[in-house]
Amino acid sequence: MSAFAWNILLALIWIAVSGDFSGAGLLTGFVLGYIILGITLREVPAFAAYVRRVPKIILFAGYFLRELIRSNLRVAWDVVTPTHYMKPAVIAVPLDAKTDGEIALVANLISLTPGTLTLDVSSDRRVLYIHVMYLDDLEQVRADIKRFEARVLELLR
Amino acid sequence: MIDIITALSFAILSIALVITFVRLVRGPSLPDRVVALELMASLTVGFIGVHAVSSERFSFLDVAMVLALTAFLAAVGFARYLEKGGLRSDD
Amino acid sequence: MIDVLVALSMLIGALFMLLAAIGLLRMPDLPMRMHATTKAGALGSGLIMIAVALHFSSSEVTARVIAIIGFIMLTAPVAAHVIGRAGYFVGVPLWHKILQDDLKGKYDATTHTLRSPDIDSQDIEQPPRDH
């Protein structure tokens, strides 16, 4: 993550030089520093990986927000209409994330995507137990969760 | 216009608070009540946000920040109490 | 323009919080109530906070708002996890229409550990889907 530290340093230098001590100034410095790092140090592997990662994180944030709103609306519909369409189930999903940090992030993001709620991780860290609200097709739901996990892990590794 | 919006938001949040209170009273189990209490904390964070806009004073946001954190600690405390052999049922 | 955004964001946020409350009241069992409160509650308070940031549009308010949203996004799922786990331990009944429960019998009440499903059981060893 030292590439990130360099980017912060460049942003701070921008603030000091421009004299604009504000959030907007920091953001400007950060974007300019990112562009400079992307152009000048594109041969260095560590910096190139960092430069490639930032757009991915922004894309993922957009994808996550869309998921959040789309499936919130589905739950909303179910809450306000008189009949319950839920097909709840607790399912076990094998986990590809290995370290504590990866597992924590994957579990948190799964909890925030409506329709799925992480209940627990098995003590040997092989399996995530997830409460699913709409189990239309077990295979489909499991594949969706695995695809989501793969997207999160791609950002971290 | 912003006055009408904040008044409307206050009304909606108040209704939500009353509904949450019904669940808090009805239970039926202690974890259900803890979930209701947690939602009350988030509702209060919302209230503080709306009040900050309507009163044009943003110092209240610090309270919201602390509230968001302490509500979480309360939930963790309750959960540990239940798991380590607390009250099995409360009705 | 900003006023319209503030109004929209605040009203939709408040409505999502109302939705979380209705969900908490109407959902039939504990995990599904938590579905309603963690997601709709977090989204609702997040939207109201975004409205606050847009209304004041100064960096000190924005910093606080980002901190509050970050705290909520970090803590809501963890709180749902600890309460759901405690509820399962205490034996809060699940809805009678639940389709399957892989968690059943996996908790060890004395050591507080959680077993994973057996490796040879067919519900976990699925060939990866290809597409």
Characterize this entry briefly.
The complex is a heterotrimer of chains A (157), B (91) and C (131). With 91 residues, chain B is mainly α. Chain B has helices at 2-26, 30-55, 60-83.
Features:
heterotrimer, B: 91 residues, mainly alpha, 3 helices, flat, C: 131 residues, Helix Hairpins, two-stranded antiparallel sheet, 64% helix, elongated, disordered C terminus
Q: Would you give an account of this structure?
A:
The complex is a heterotrimer of chains A (157), B (91) and C (131). Chain A is mainly alpha-helical and 157 residues long. In chain A, helix 4 (100-112) packs across helix 5. In chain A, a hairpin with a 5-residue loop joins strand 2 (116-121) and strand 3. Chain A has two domains: 2-40, no CATH class; 84-156, Alpha-Beta Plaits. Chain A has helices at 2-18, 23-40, 45-80, 100-112, 138-156; strands at residues 89-94, 116-121, 127-132. Chain A has five helices and three strands, in the order αααβαββα. The relative contact order of chain A is 0.11. Chain A is 66% helix and 11% strand. By secondary structure, chain B is mainly α. Chain B has one domain. Helix content of chain B is 82%, strand content 0%. Chain B is built from three helices and no strands. Chain B has helices spanning 2-26, 30-55, 60-83. In chain B, helix 1 (2-26) packs antiparallel against helix 2 (30-55) and helix 2 (30-55) packs antiparallel against helix 3. The longest helix of chain B is centred in the middle third of the chain and has 26 residues, at 30-55. Chain B is flat. Chain C is mainly alpha-helical. Chain C has one domain (2-95, 102-114): Helix Hairpins (Orthogonal Bundle). Chain C has three helices and two strands. Chain C has a two-stranded antiparallel sheet with strand order 1-2. The longest helix of chain C is centred in the middle third of the chain and has 32 residues, at 59-90. Chain C is elongated. Classes of the chains: A mainly alpha (157), B mainly alpha (91), C mainly alpha (131). At the B-C interface, helix 1, helix 2 and helix 3 of B face helix 1, helix 2 and helix 3 of C.
